[in-house]
Amino acid sequence: MKSFQEAVIDRRTNYAIGKNIPVLESQIIAAVERMVLEVPSAFNMQSARVVVAMNEHHDKVWEITKAELKKVVAPEKFDLVEEKRQGFAAGYGTILFFEDNDSVGEMQKKFAPYAKYFPIWASQANGMLQFAVWTLLEDMGLGVSLQHYNPLIDEEIKKYFKVPESWELVAEMVFGELLNPAATIEKIPVKERVKVFA
User: Fold this and answer.
1) CA distances from residue 64 to 49, 147, 158 in whole angstroms, order as listed
2) pTM value?
3) Is 134 in contact with 11 (CB distance < 8 Å)?
């Protein structure tokens, strides 16, 4: 395992992924479950929910996505979005990140003076969870990317996985065999983003 700093530096968006993963399914499941338990949330809200979809369940996520895209994308533009979708479908699995709105609502009632902030804090905690899972999976040698086909696919995804109505889909994390390293990206100079007063 790399140091935490090395793992964060090496985490990238990987679009070229395949099905021959270098780890066991049980290792992926254990990693996700551990991060769900350990990533913090404001007021210990614990409103994040996760579905790990592999094998035919992963395939179903991307079949649903194709069907929903066909309803909204103009035929002359469909080939472009379909090529991208096929790249995600080529992976090994998809982690679906949800927020349980009932949990958020309970906290809003319990701590009424802070009610308007709980959805913001829930989103922040979910983002931390996504980042933690992404970094850990990358450190395990997997190619990973984070996608956002919600709310387009929400209804059919929730039906297929039989999740509670209160669960709101917020992101889809695709993972698989790393086929090509991620392209380098341009970074804004850190001095333009960080001010230090010491």
Assistant:
1) 20, 14, 11
2) 0.95
3) yes
- Which residues, in sequence order, are bridge partners of residue 143? 176
| Nearest by Cα to 145 from 3, 11, 8 | 11
CA-CA distance, 39 to 53, in Å (whole number)? 21
Q: Give the phi and the psi of residue 194 in degrees, each rounded to 5.
A: -125, 130
Cα-to-chain-centroid distance, residue 90: 17
Q: Of 171, 137, 141, 178, which is closest to residue 153 (Cα–Cα)?
A: 171
- CA 186 – CA 86 distance, rounded (Å): 27
Q: How far apart are CA 112 and CA 106, in angstroms?
A: 10
As a whole number of angstroms, the distance between CA 145 and CA 94 comes to 10
Residue 129 tokens read as 């969870």
Helix, strand, coil percentages (3-state) for the chain, rounded to 5, are: 55, 20, 30
- Cβ neighbours of residue 124 closer than 8 Å, sequence gap 6 or more: 42
**Nearest-angstrom CA–CA distance, 44 and 181:** 37
Per-residue pLDDT of the chain (198 residues; tens, 9 = 90+): 689 999 999 999 999 999 999 999 999 999 999 999 999 999 999 999 999 999 999 999 999 999 999 999 999 999 999 999 999 999 999 999 999 999 999 999 999 999 999 999 999 999 999 999 999 999 999 999 999 999 999 999 999 999 999 999 999 999 999 999 888 889 999 999 999 999
